[in-house]
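Lab notes, practical 5.
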Amino acid sequence: MDAGDRRAGRTKPRKILLLVLAGAALAAVLLALFFWPWVAAQIRAVVVLSAVLRPPLLTPAVAALTPEPAVSDREVAGVPTLVARPGEGGEGPALVFVNGAVPPGRHEPNVRRLARGLARAGYEVYVPDVPGLRSGEISPSTVEATVEVSRRAARDSGSVGLAGVSVGASIALLAAEDPGLNERVSVVAGIAPYTDLETVLRLATTGTYLRGGEPVPYGTPPYLRLVVARSLVAMLPPGEDRRALMRRLPSLESYYPPQLVDDDPLAALRAFVAGRGEELGPAAQSVARLLVNEDPERFDGLFADLPPRMRRLVDELSPLAGAERLRAPVYVASAPRDKYFPLSESRRLDRASPRVSLTVTRALTHAIPHPSPDDLSAFARLDAFVVQSLRASAEGAPQRGQQDAGPEQGLRGGEQVLHLQQRPGRALVLRRQAQHLLRDPV
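Output from the prediction step:
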């Protein structure tokens, strides 16, 4: 074999190798393009979860790689609100986070860390202290204020994501059902919501919920009883009867943090009803009798005795009743055995609307994640819930023609941008022009 033949023999395998490498590179590029929305959302999820869970090595690494968010307290639509924006003048999709019924409200440390984490991940975050939430008096005005803040947040970006924990998740769902807002909602992400307020009333007073029409015991902390009582009393018309009942209920501050207080928050109300209940008018008497009752067999009759207006308000504050008005994808995460609300609350909403996707994970006991190194599958489910929620929020509100496609649909085309900070003072920006119907700005 001469020298030319030997060179040709060596060149052929080399060309084949180059073709194989080129094919592999092309496949890698195509896979990256196809999976980029998930990859970008997973990066954002890591940023957010590191802020909430605070793992020792990851949290400082994320802080070094992402711009410091701009955080301020201001009034938005007349509501005191924590606003957290991406650092270095960055802009991102709007997200309104509704806290649970806790006295610190937007000042609660876990909530502030979450807001900062979301801002580091590229979101413009609003945490409003809507009326009644910090005092445990949930009412239609709580929902109305959430709707107004969400409209203001959506004014610039065109759409808004809604998120919340516990009662706040329920308020977020109710706001997303509002006919004046639902077309502009990009996503609803909720952890451990209640969905039917009548069920919660039964649960808080009798310690049971219905399964197949039969009462099933379900123990909950006294804190739930107090929030339910304050909310129901607040539904009474203004006047001396309402003031008389509210004076017999402790403040939320006296039962916070919930795990430190285990006595009966309705003890003073029970004594008042037993000794002076006849002094109240008919509406207040019906509320008081329902609240102090602990017999599951009597609940239905006592609930039916409430004034029609109050029963309508209970329905109005139940996300399950308006589930057909949901237009955005809805992601709900709950524990198998939640501390406050049975899993059936989330399952009922999941069955009521094709837009709802339910994640059940042992990484939750209620609102705050507590993942265990011994249960990685539970953490994986929580991570998937966060990834789905953040991805949908970044994609914007579904277009009208896409709104019937369920939680995985309603995505739009556009440029995908991921902002990270390579080192202080220098931004690292990864850009990709989408070639398919996905839009994933960060």
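Observations recorded by the TA: The two ends are 61 Å apart (CA to CA). The first strand starts at residue 70 and ends at 76.
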